[in-house]
């Protein structure tokens, strides 16, 4: 994780664009120095943390504190490959430091996410409007002759405001036999949302400020229970998506459209699809039928009446056998009511 400070000349006239997620806070560095001001990320970017299970994205306003600690440190001797294409190495006289850094992100409700932070640019803007840029990286590599102490890195990022709050999921009133841990994805990028178990059974919290941007699935003994909007997309759009599904070229050869929903802004569409492969699958038994319950994100061009696939995310994957149907999928708009956003602050 390298700290890069812009020179005075480079800072002259540099202003961080004003965006809603600017937050007052302080960055503390390993040498004891501090920067205080309005903290922002590059416009349109979020924090991306690689946890032990999956990558998690969350906006800066949904964090309470970020802590960085060395995971490993060493002095590395340089090397090169004398012959191209050969694995034999030759050492050089260069000796340089390497540090890997572990990240802890504390959410407003106190829960902590841990992992490695994807390279992130943080801006610190003072009262005069001048800004400094801090590049956060999960790995620092120094130059020949440097020591580990020469590699300065942020150790702590704190905020003086309360943050944006946390969304909650409560399935305690649902009657889903054999319910497994839910899967929640956020739109428009269909990013998996990290769930933190609550203090009571079948409750979770998550860093997702807008419940209307979420889809939810719970696998039970009787199949998949999917939180899906009741309102279906326009039939013309659905027909175009059906064509898009038919023309898809991926591992699966059968795709059953189970639901199609329009984003409130009317430009993005999401479909719930059970995909399976009934043809020969190399490396699998001839009687095996691989399947995947997926959400697909589409855009629609009314002029050409064409649906374009943007991305996808799985709710569940598995394998069946010839003659056995894929798991039932039970759409339930009511499940979406189990997701609640941060409480509305009282009127001043």
What does this structure look like?
The protein is mostly beta strands. It contains 2 helices and 24 strands. It has helices spanning 8-11, 235-247; strands at residues 23-29, 34-41, 47-50, 55-58, 65-80, 90-106, 112-117, 120-125, 131-136, 139-141, 154-159, 167-170, 183-186, 191-192, 196-197, 203-206, 214-220, 223-227, 254-262, 268-276, 288-301, 306-321, 329-331, 339-340. The strands form 4 sheets. Strands 1, 2, 3, 4, 5, 6, 7, 8, 9, 10 and 11 form an 11-stranded antiparallel beta sheet that branches. A 5-stranded mixed beta sheet has the order 14-13-17-18-23, with no helix packed on it. A hairpin with a 4-residue loop joins strand 1 and strand 2 (34-41). 29% of the residues are buried.
Low-confidence stretches: 1-20, 343-348
By oligomeric state, this entry counts as: single chain
Q: What series of H and E elements makes up the topology?
A: HEEEEEEEEEEEEEEEEEEHEEEEEE
Coarse morphology: globular
Mean pLDDT: 85
Distance from N terminus to C terminus (CA atoms, Å) equals 42 Å
Major sheet summary line: 11 strands, antiparallel
Q: Which value, in Å, is the CA radius of gyration?
A: 25 Å
Helix tally? 2
Beta content comes to over 45%
Number of strands: 24
Structural class: mainly beta
Quick structural summary:
With 348 residues, the chain is mostly beta strands. It has two helices and 24 strands.
List keywords for this structure.
348 residues; 11-stranded antiparallel β-sheet; 5-stranded mixed β-sheet; disordered C terminus
């Amino acid at each position: 994780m390298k700290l890069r400070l812009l020179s005075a000349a480079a800072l002259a006239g540099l202003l961080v664009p004003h965006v809603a997620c600017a937050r007052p806070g302080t960055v503390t560095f390993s040498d004891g120095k501090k920067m205080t001001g309005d903290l922002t990320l590059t416009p349109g970017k979020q924090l991306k943390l690689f946890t032990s299970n999956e990558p998690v994205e969350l906006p800066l306003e949904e964090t309470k504190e970020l802590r960085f600690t060395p995971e490993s440190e060493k002095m590395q001797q340089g090397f090169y490959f004398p012959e191209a294409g050969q694995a034999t190495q030759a050492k050089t006289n260069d000796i340089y430091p390497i540090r890997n850094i572990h990240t802890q992100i504390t959410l407003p409700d106190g829960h902590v996410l841990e992992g490695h932070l994807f390279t992130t640019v943080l801006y610190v803007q003072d009262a005069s409007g001048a800004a400094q840029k801090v590049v956060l990286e999960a790995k620092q590599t120094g130059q020949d002759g440097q020591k580990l102490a020469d590699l300065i890195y942020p150790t702590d990022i704190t905020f003086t405001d309360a943050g944006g709050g946390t969304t909650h999921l409560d399935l305690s009133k649902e009657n889903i036999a054999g319910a497994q841990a839910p899967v929640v994805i956020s739109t428009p990028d269909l990013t998996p949302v990290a769930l933190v178990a609550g203090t009571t059974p079948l409750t979770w919290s998550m860093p997702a400020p807008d419940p209307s941007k979420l889809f939810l699935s719970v696998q039970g003994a009787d199949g998949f229970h999917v939180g899906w909007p009741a309102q279906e997309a326009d039939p013309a759009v659905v027909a175009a998506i059906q064509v898009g599904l038919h023309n898809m070229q991926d591992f699966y050869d059968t795709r059953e459209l189970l639901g199609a929903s329009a984003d409130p802004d009317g430009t993005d569409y999401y479909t719930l699809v059970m995909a399976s492969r009934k043809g020969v699958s190399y490396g699998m038994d001839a009687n095996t039928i691989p399947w995947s319950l997926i959400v697909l994100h589409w855009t629609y061009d009314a002029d050409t009446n064409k649906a374009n696939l943007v991305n996808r995310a799985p709710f569940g994957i598995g394998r069946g056998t010839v003659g056995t149907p894929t798991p039932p999928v039970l759409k339930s708009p009511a499940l979406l009511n189990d997701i609640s956003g941060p409480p509305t602050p009282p009127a001043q």
